[in-house]
Amino acid sequence: QLQLVESGGGLVQPGGSLRLSCAASGFTLEYYLIGWFRQAPGKEREEVSCISSGGSTNYADSVKGRFTISRDNTKNTVYLQMNSLKPEDTAVYYCNAALNWRDYWGQGTQVTVSS
Asked: How far apart are CA 14 and CA 28, in angstroms?
């Protein structure tokens, strides 16, 4: 079965950190463009960061300098390290894997930043 599974979300205080994981099963992430997206209540889904198969990365302006995307091909997993979290980072975070006509989404993991 082809699937992506996110994990690592939770409740954290402002200024805290979380590391999200996106693990693939049934296919190899190494060749895919991987994106992290988030959707806050009442808002549209937005792209937070992405990493190419070659390791090139991109970040939304709102998270630059705070979030770091990385991939471990030996574990078939992509990570999103989130530091200096703010209340406005609160959202459901999703990972996406895209290659040609293939496009897979995970089920999402909730991140809540609150004191």
From this structure: 35
